[in-house]
Amino acid sequence: LETIFVAVASYRDWQCPQTVESAFSRASHPERIRVAVVDQIRFGRDTPCSIPPGGPCEENPNQATCKHLSQIDYFTVDADLSVGPVFARHLGHRLYRGEYFAM
Predict the structure, then answer these.
(1) What is the DSSP-derived secondary structure letter of residue 51?
(2) What is the Cα–Cα distance from 99 to 33, expressed in whole angstroms?
(3) Of 13, 51, 64, 70, which residue is least crowded by CB atoms under 10 Å?
(4) pTM reported for the whole predicted model
(5) With DSSP H G I counted as helix, E B as strand and the rest as coil, what are the percentages for the chain, rounded to 5?
(6) Could you tell me which of 29, 34, 38 has the C-alpha nearest to residue 88?
(7) Which residues of 13-27 are buried (b: 16+ CB within 10 A; e: fewer)?
(8) How many Å apart are CA 94 and CA 103, to the nearest integer?
């Protein structure tokens, strides 16, 4: 089965939840996608990427992100401790688990 690994390095990006949601909602075979997000945020000020665009999964479980939650890994880092996009991408690619394609 050909699977796709998508690594996302996000620095205080308020659109990150929409990006993850879009990856699954637009896919012909969303069951073949696995997403790893390195979410660099300021705690208490930024919305984490792990909260879907339509609100928490408990409130709105029909979102594509919620339906495929087991295929998403989130690694959250305090933005003040971030050391740049290259290291964030490195962390994201460390979450690779042998998928056929990687992005």
Answers:
(1) S
(2) 9
(3) 70
(4) 0.93
(5) 30, 25, 45
(6) 38
(7) beebbebbbebbeee
(8) 13
First to last CA, the chain: 17
At a CB cut-off of 8 Å and minimum separation 6, what does 5 contact? Answer: 34, 35, 36, 96, 97, 99, 101, 102, 103
Would you place residue 97 in the very low, low, confident or very high pLDDT band (cuts 50, 70, 90)?
Answer: very high
C-alpha closest to that of 12 among 37, 50, 59, 47: 47
Helix (H) or strand (E) holding 73: strand 72-78
Taking the C-alpha atoms of residue 52 and residue 102, their distance in angstroms, rounded to an integer, is 23
